[in-house]
Design brief:
Helix content: 25-40%
Shape: globular
Number of helices: 5
Radius of gyration: 15 Å
Number of strands: 6
Largest sheet: 6 strands, parallel
Strand content: 15-25%
Structural class: alpha/beta
Strand order of the largest sheet: 3-2-1-4-5-6
Length: 170
């Protein structure tokens, strides 16, 4: 347990140095594809969050989700991952996560409030045009930062779509 803590601590320090090169947003036009990273160790309302996104005009089939779990179970899906999928050299070993990173999403929603090296690395490496996350996470990772908590998914999606409507108007 202590060794995994140390690994995470040093990896987090190493990753903070690479977060300085966040690319500017290049979002134009309608939002069609959404990538969603959920930390299920702190948020279990996945279906409610999905419902909020769909109610705001995102087609469910255009939302791709990967889920972080503290402990993976045998009943998990290929899109489930844990800290064990991250090597100390910052290599991610989960094929579904690497596929997710390479997708060109219009918007990436990093739905996590706790600094976990693997979650932060996925956000950083994503090819998404616009990255959205919580204020509690390193500000260098996301283009849009929403100051609320994960439990208040209605507030999060409301603020997100208010901002996206402003982008469309400009």
């Amino acid at each position: 347990m202590f060794l995994s803590y140390l690994k995470g601590f040093f990896l987090k320090k190493k990753l903070k140095n690479i977060f300085y090169d966040v690319k500017s947003t290049r979002l134009t036009g309608a939002i069609k594809t959404v990538g969603l990273i959920i930390d299920e160790s702190h948020f279990l309302e996945r279906n409610s969050l999905m419902k909020e996104l769909v109610e705001n005009g995102i087609l469910e089939e255009n939302i791709t989700i990967i889920t972080y779990k503290n402990n993976l179970s045998k009943n998990g899906t290929a899109a489930d991952f844990s800290s064990k999928d991250l090597k100390s050299n910052s290599e991610i070993t989960n094929a579904a996560v690497n596929n997710f990173i390479s997708q060109d999403f219009d918007v990436l929603i990093s739905y996590y409030e706790v600094d976990r090296p693997i979650l932060m690395l996925i956000t950083h490496r994503s090819n998404a045009k616009l990255k959205v996350g919580f204020a509690s996470i390193d500000k260098k990772l996301n283009h849009l930062i929403i100051d609320t908590t994960a439990e208040k998914h209605e507030v999060f999606t409301n603020e997100l779509f208010k901002y996206l409507k402003r982008i469309k108007q400009n």
